[in-house]
């Protein structure tokens, strides 16, 4: 069977499993699954930005932009969730488009610091302008989505909603990465001078990745606040950004699925150590250090390493004569 | 080179991975298999959805320690009788690290899996995130911040700390005992939940006491250098330096000491005041007014105080957790005791019955008095206010001076309080 069909069958199996899984989980783990699925979209959208070689520290804040936009559109403007969800992505994308002008005058480390500063400026606006953002206490009483008789306050229906939207977003992100645009983004990363020499506008492509990534994480922000019912500036601070970086780095960022593996594995590990509250940060830290020491290419490299280990063992068993 | 290091060390890489995996698996298995209870009585579980790690842990973990002492005392004494059945008390806690996602998960775990009859929380955004589900499922939830209460949050109550309403008693005592004081400066962090609420309350209290507020200095949470803040405030020469919230009391006190401040100091809390004395001097800290007593205070044995054996509780806490006493050490236990009393009055474990019993019983506040209040500010009378202690450091030790009447102050001065809340942009119904 061609690899393409094998992958499709695998993905279909995974989706089918995800449809069934919530019914076998404890109630609070169903919530965990919702947040985990949203975080899958967060890291996947962040990876698109990193394709150009630029690592930003503003992605969590852009998620907050989407969250606040969706909140204000539903609470203040009275729009329904179904309209505010895509609009939240548009607002986050628009804010990213404006930020491109100052931010992409910088590259590498300077871009990293510049993006952090821009993110903090946005976050401080949420804190200082109590109207309309609610200050540090944020905004509460955000309405849940409404669709017929479906009760989205319950975790299973909301998980299915999140699953559908995140799957659609992942398909779009995957298509973008595999398209001509995606190839150009990689070229901008690895061979920027060469790309410019053949007429590629690197500023434009860096900006494009940043805007698209921000738009998708804005949608993730909207999905999150309409389940939590509250939005605060602290949810989208540097603390959450550090988690995004850890998920991507530990998972690996060479492949589309690396960052997803990172967020899934680390989130489940973190949740597994409940009951050892005072030790949890230390255990989490040890796992991180160990994974960076022993898996510098991320968790995504594990299958390759296993294949290498198996073939080496086979070669050793067959002896040097065979190789010769 | 790395390979060589690994092979010549006592534990090679393979052993390291194997042993680490075994250790991790052991820890993980420990979470899967819960402790087996040996209790003979039926068990009632009370939940704590609190921060036990992170920046807010000092307002969570000591409360858990306190509740564990109370639960042990009750269970050792044979349990509590509710509706003719004797129950042991079990405390189930979930660490949300002041994260809203985790708060939602923890709340549902406590209610649905641990079958907690009540969930105690610190307050703020973590409470807001659990309210929609909690209200629909009629989960009795408590907060230390009554500003979390909304007109719709029928099952959210503040039965112990009513931050920051009790601060008015300290200002009242100050004005009465130090009539020479004419001006005050307020310093606080600029968050809505703790800082601004507290600043507005202190402003109202100072206005009622006839003390002019000459400066309100709001700072962010990310501040590390308090010298410029203290300098700019002291340049205005206030008679009273007021710290409206507790996040940065220690560095502010250090700066006041180093910059030679000699006026009166009033603060919402003075957690870990032993450390402050160690960093400054006993002479400097003496006379500081605040609101949270030690529980070995002789005045807590007076009539009207409802906490059972406060001295014994204080001693037990400090024996097991010598460096962890904070304001919440006794607040969460007080909330638990309040719930037990209400359940006994109701003779039922039903949430509606217990809530009705809570609201029908007068004189039930921990320090005496007791009146349900709050509709003027937050839309529901779900905050229990009563007498509250005014504490002063004397000879390096916290000593209650008197019990002020919060409810009495509010009945006369609600309009002033509402005015200052509105001026600071805070939600008022």
Task: Describe the overall structure.
The complex is a heterodimer of chains A (324) and B (429). With 324 residues, chain A is an all-alpha fold. Chain A is built from 15 helices and two strands. Chain A has two domains: 12-236, no CATH class; 238-319, no CATH class. A two-stranded antiparallel sheet of chain A has the order 1-2. In chain A, helix 2 packs across helix 11 and helix 8 packs across helix 10. Chain A is globular and about 75 Å long. In chain A, 42% of the residues are buried. In chain B, 44% of the residues lie in helices and 19% in strands. Chain B has helices spanning 2-8, 13-32, 61-76, 100-113, 125-136, 167-177, 192-209, 227-234, 249-258, 273-279, 282-285, 310-320, 328-346, 351-360, 375-378, 406-423, and strands at 42-50, 80-82, 85-95, 116-121, 140-142, 156-157, 183-189, 212-219, 240-243, 264-267, 289-290, 371-373, 383-385, 387-394, 397-405. In chain B, helix 7 links the parallel strand 7 and strand 8. Chain B contains 16 helices and 15 strands. Chain B has two domains: 42-163 and 305-385, Rossmann fold (3-Layer(aba) Sandwich), CATH 3.40.50; 167-290 and 389-423, Response regulator (Rossmann fold). The model of chain B is unreliable at 1-14 and 16-39 (pLDDT under 50). Chain B starts with a helix and ends in a 6-residue tail after the last helix. Chain B is α/β, with parallel strands linked by helices. The longest helix of chain B has 20 residues, at 13-32. Chain B is globular and about 60 Å long. In chain B, helix 3 packs across helix 13 (328-346), helix 4 (100-113) packs parallel to helix 5 and helix 13 (328-346) packs across helix 14 (351-360). The chains are: A mainly alpha (324), B alpha/beta (429). The A-B interface holds A 26-29, 31-32, 35, 124, 127-128, 130-131, 134-138, 140-141, 144, 153, 155, 224, 227-230, 232, 234-235, 272-281, 283, 286-287, 290, 294 and B 13, 17, 20, 24, 27-28, 30-31, 52-53, 94-95, 98-101, 104-106, 108-109, 112-113, 124-125, 128-129, 131-133, 136, 150, 152, 190-193, 196, 220-221, 425-426.
């Amino acid at each position: 069977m061609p690899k393409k069909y094998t992958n499709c069958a695998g993905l279909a199996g995974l989706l089918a499993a995800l449809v069934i899984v919530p019914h076998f989980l404890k109630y609070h783990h169903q919530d965990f699954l919702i947040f985990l699925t949203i975080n899958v979209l967060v890291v996947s959208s962040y990876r698109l930005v990193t394709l150009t070689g630029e690592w930003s520290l503003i992605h969590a804040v852009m998620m907050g932009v989407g969250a606040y936009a969706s909140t204000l559109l539903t609470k203040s403007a009275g729009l329904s969730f179904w309209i505010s969800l895509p609009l939240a992505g548009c607002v986050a994308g628009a804010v990213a488009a404006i930020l491109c002008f100052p931010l992409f005058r910088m590259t590498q480390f300077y871009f990293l610091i510049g993006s952090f500063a821009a993110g903090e400026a946005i976050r401080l606006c949420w804190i200082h302008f109590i109207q309309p953002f609610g200050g540090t206490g944020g905004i509460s009483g955000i309405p849940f989505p409404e669709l017929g008789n479906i009760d989205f306050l319950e975790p299973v229906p909301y998980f299915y909603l999140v699953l559908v939207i995140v799957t659609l977003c992942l398909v779009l992100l995957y298509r973008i990465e595999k398209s001509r645009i995606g190839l150009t983004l990689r070229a901008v990363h690895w061979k920027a001078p060469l790309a410019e020499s053949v007429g590629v506008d690197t500023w434009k492509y860096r900006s494009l990745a940043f805007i698209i990534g921000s738009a998708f994480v804005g949608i993730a922000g909207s999905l999150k606040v309409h389940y939590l019912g509250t939005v605060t500036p602290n949810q989208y601070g540097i603390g959450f950004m550090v988690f995004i970086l850890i998920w991507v780095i530990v998972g690996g960022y060479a492949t589309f699925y690396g960052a997803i593996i990172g967020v899934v594995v680390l989130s489940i590990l973190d949740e597994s150590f409940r009951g050892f509250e005072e030790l949890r940060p230390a255990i989490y830290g040890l796992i991180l250090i160990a994974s960076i020491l022993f898996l510098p290419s991320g968790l995504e490299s594990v299958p390759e390493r296993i294949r290498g280990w198996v073939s080496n063992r086979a070669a050793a068993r067959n002896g040097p004569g065979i190789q010769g | 080179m790395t390979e060589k290091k690994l092979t010549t060390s006592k534990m090679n890489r393979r052993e390291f991975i194997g042993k680490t995996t075994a250790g991790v698996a052991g820890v993980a298995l420990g979470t899967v298999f819960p402790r087996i209870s040996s209790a003979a009585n039926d068990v009632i579980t009370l939940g704590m959805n609190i921060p036990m790690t992170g920046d807010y842990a000092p307002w969570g973990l000591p409360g858990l320690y306190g509740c564990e002492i109370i639960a042990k005392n009750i269970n050792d004494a044979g349990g509590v009788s509710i509706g003719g059945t004797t129950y042991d008390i079990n405390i189930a806690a979930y660490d949300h690290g002041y994260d809203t996602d985790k708060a939602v998960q923890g709340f549902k775990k406590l209610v649905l899996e641990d079958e907690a009859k009540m969930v105690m929380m610190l307050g703020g955004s973590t409470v807001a995130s659990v309210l929609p589900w909690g209200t629909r499922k009629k989960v009795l939830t408590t907060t230390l911040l009554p500003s979390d209460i909304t007109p719709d949050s029928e099952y959210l109550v503040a039965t112990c700390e009513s931050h920051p309403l009790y601060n008015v008693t300290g200002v009242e005592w100050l004005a009465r005992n130090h009539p020479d004081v004419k001006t005050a400066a307020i310093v606080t962090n600029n968050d809505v939940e703790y800082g601004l609420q507290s600043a507005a309350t202190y402003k109202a209290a100072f206005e009622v006491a006839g003390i002019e507020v000459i400066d309100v200095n709001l700072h962010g949470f990310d501040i590390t250098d308090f010298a410029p803040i203290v300098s700019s405030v002291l340049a205005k020469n206030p008679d009273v330096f007021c710290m409206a919230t507790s996040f940065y009391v220690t560095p502010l006190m250090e700066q006041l000491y180093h910059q030679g401040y000699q006026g009166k100091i009033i603060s919402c809390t003075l957690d870990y005041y032993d450390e402050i004395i160690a960093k400054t001097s006993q002479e400097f800290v003496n006379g500081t007014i605040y609101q949270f007593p030690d529980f070995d205070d002789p005045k807590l044995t007076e009539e009207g105080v409802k906490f059972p054996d406060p001295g014994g509780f204080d001693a037990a806490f400090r024996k097991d957790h010598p460096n962890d006493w904070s304001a919440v050490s006794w607040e969460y236990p007080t909330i638990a005791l309040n719930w037990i009393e209400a359940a006994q009055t109701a003779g039922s474990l039903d949430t509606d019955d217990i809530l009705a019993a809570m609201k029908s019983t007068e004189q039930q506040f921990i320090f005496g008095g007791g009146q349900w209040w709050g509709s003027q500010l937050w839309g529901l009378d779900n905050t229990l206010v009563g007498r509250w202690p005014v504490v002063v450091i004397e000879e390096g030790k916290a000593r209650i001076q008197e019990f002020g009447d919060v409810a009495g102050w509010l009945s006369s001065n609600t309009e002033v309080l509402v005015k200052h809340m509105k001026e600071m942009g805070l939600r008022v119904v």
